Batch of 3 targets.
Target 1
Amino acid sequence: MNKKNVLVAQSGGPTSAINASLAGVLKATIDSDNYDRCYGAINGVLGVLSENYLDLTDKAKEDSDFIKLLNQTPAMYLGSCRFKLPEYRDDDSSYSFIFSQFRKLNIGAFFYIGGNDSMDTVLKLSNYAREIGSDVKIIGVPKTIDNDLCNTDHTPGFGSAAKYIASSLLEIAHDTFIYAVKSVTIVEIMGRDAGWLTAASALARNGYSTAPHLIYLPEVPFDKEKFISDVRHELSKRNNVIIAVSEGIRDKDGNYITSSKAMADTFGHQQLSGAGKALEFLVKENIDVKVRSVEINVLQRCAAHLASKTDLDESFAQGKKAVALSEEGQTGCMVVLKRISNAPYQVEYSYAQIKDIANEAKSVPVEWINREENDITEEFIEYLRPLIVGEAEHYYENGIPKYLDISHLNQKH
């Protein structure tokens, strides 16, 4: 039998676990009876359009530790892009070239690892494949720290980011509580439209610390006057108040609460900055207290030294599941997780049609936000807690984590 090859690429923002999914795809391809080689496109779909590939099968053969190191290396070994394919009915030149590459490389399945915008690419390529009668299987492998992909319980990368955020909030509490003076610390966390990451800050709470004392998510309108009232109330109970806030909080009219004008990316998403700083100024203007804002920013995305073992294991398994789905003949779909139980924590791996996922976003259920709209419920915490469990194994060199060489991403083409 003439075996086919597979092609895999990564797109969108980085995470601590996206390479674990790549490692899963590679391992399943090597173990497959149906596929021969696993090629990786550099910088997402742009790598296909520029014919820029790595033979990942050779990499794994040359280095017996390659898959193991890939599994613990943060961000994207293959690099990324934020490229929006045009509608093929308007311009099919990119599609025609991509599928000519599939034929050239004898590709039987294409796996695209990414978030919402990447699933848009999976949808478009799937539709085009059906239009031209191609038998190449097109399958999405999820990732996004934002945890906003529909039809899946949670996404790879979210658990590790949640673990980092919770750990950081606890450390901020230790830093702040040492001073016997009234203070407010505002921590801005990523989340343009969904507050999953900000909600994860509640996992920092323990027997001696209830920080963060206030949590504000973009799913409900933000009221400045109520915010000041909430802060005053918390200051009446304790010296140090710690607040977690999503970057995407907005008022009842839908206007973002930022300290600077937002720009838009190629997909039309506003690039936000300054929600924490805006609230810092608001507190300074209304309350005579020491106040500072902290923007965690990109640190929460690729903190592999605090990765969740559960997250990495599930990400690897979802990469393997994508290959299995293609061998079963599935296409135009994305790997999904279905939670069976919280205690003991169990999930099963399945798939959902990409048309029901692409260009949609999953918000935090409003019933998981408290009545005062400044905290989350215990049910939400029970959902979050299993996702950060377990410490990933790391390898060190000269005291620094050892990751795979990514110099191929910094080469001029």
Note: Residues 4-144+304-360+391-410 form a domain with the Rossmann fold fold (CATH 3.40.50.450).
Target 2
Amino acid sequence: MKIIATISDLKQHLKKEKVNGSTIGFVPTMGFLHEGHVSLMEASKKENDVSVISIFVNPLQFGPNEDFESYPRDLERDARIAENAGVDFLFAPLPEEMYPARPSISIHVKDRVDVLCGSKREGHFDGVAAVLTKLFNIVQPDRVYFGLKDAQQVAVVDGLINDFNIPVELRAMPTIREEDGLAKSSRNVRLSPDEREMAPVIYQSLKWAEEAAKNGVGDEAALISGIKERIENETSGEIDYIEIYSYPSLKKMDVLEGKFIIAAAVKFSDARLIDNIIISAGA
């Protein structure tokens, strides 16, 4: 695996691969890799001739109350994980490499961002869209890999690719879970032993709603109420939101039909957990 820090070097290496007819898979990350990232890298390795991962803590997607400086970084550890997953190129630029001057053009994401977690992170997805546009142009991948644990981000990326006709296939991969169903997350270590035992109820309540929807419960309020009741009765967590929208457009629905997402965020004492389930009505 080659570790590359400059745009010019990466483009030079990947140009050679393209000339040889190689397909390129790409996993964009902010580093501090975990099993979810590993699953994306392994999928990229399996489906492409060449796999690229980027590790870049993007300053544009941090809000005024979010500490860019304290975001965890460990490139040496991440490099070992990426190499073990079969990655060919690790792109790890510094901020001044990605943003050598103040941008003259900004990207503003108008849809899919005023709900779920995005409703409390104004400007976050503008920064995500800006850095991904740059990375897609630098890497020029055939396929790009994201995890559905952050389904809102996947929806925004879907809109970015479609709106700007970016020639890349979006591969949205299933959430990686613990044996008891809890979505894997670096935040899980912040749960107390009691909270860790309770946390799988979030996914269990979403699965209940999925089953109810497939059995003909088409009332959004009834599904949300059922999820809320179970989480409140069986955990000590504080519900941040339980929301249902069409997917990936993330619009309110008069009738639950087609593909839609049921998503929840729950705050415990020292960790805020998110999870979701995507349902195709009639499936």
Note: The chain has nine helices and nine strands.
Target 3
Amino acid sequence: MQLNLKSLFWNAIFVLVLISVCWLIYASGKRIDYNWNWERVVPYIATNAASSINAPADGEIVLAANNQLVLQNLSGDTIVELGGYSSLSVYEGDLIFEGDSLATIEEWRIGPILQGVITTIKISAWSLVFALFLGLFIGLMRISSNPALKKLSVVYIELIRGTPLLVQIFIVYFFIGTVLDLERFTAGVIALSVFTSAYVAEIVRSGIQSIPKGQMEAARSLGMNYPKAMIYVILPQAFKQTLPPLAGQFINLIKDSSLVSVISITDLTKAGREVVSGSFAPFEVWFTVAALYLILTSGLSWAIQALEKKLSASD
């Protein structure tokens, strides 16, 4: 009974803190005298507003054999079929010029903010995969007995961790990207992968060194060579040890991906800036962007926690 009262007390404290934070946000909004217009943000997330179908070239509206209106060019070739649209703006015999509105259609489609979310997920996912493999390779070099490999890994890690990600993105895109003719998306993935891999390498190194040396000695005594002992004995144990710090680093990767907007990749952050200029609702847009980043990072955190529990249960 006493334990339940204690738990109830601290849960009440937790709820009180949340209420206090919400009240502070509400009071701050009142203090700056800002008119909240959340409805302005909704069309930039998803909308079913009517969109116009415009003529791609000059032509004439004619009635086809199937009793359907079509736009034909001067040679008699069909350019656009006008069946299935909710509202037509033309009639049979109309002369049409390029850019004229032919019809309108109402259908659900994603807005620029959700499109930015998709781009952020893509660039983060590719960067996460490459950073994991590159970081594992650099981490193994870091503990290698070969002095050349070890020193090269140290220089790589210190150089990457000692320079800002923003500067690295500029170097990869404007220097390396110009030489190798890289696209913006590819340059962004490379920059994020290289930056994150330096931190992953140190996490991998610490995870491997946390495994007792007796594990390697036992594996070698069973006839395994060094690579097999590392792959089948050491790395699986080290992976369990490094899951929490890896989760934190991958969450940082998702947030760091916002910097690729400086090379004109329309990720979630860049989409937010563009929507702010068109909606004149800066606070609503940035709160929405922050909430979407929170959903992405929380989803990744939940997935890694589930994997960690599954691995713990298998021990």
Note: The longest strand covers residues 59-63.
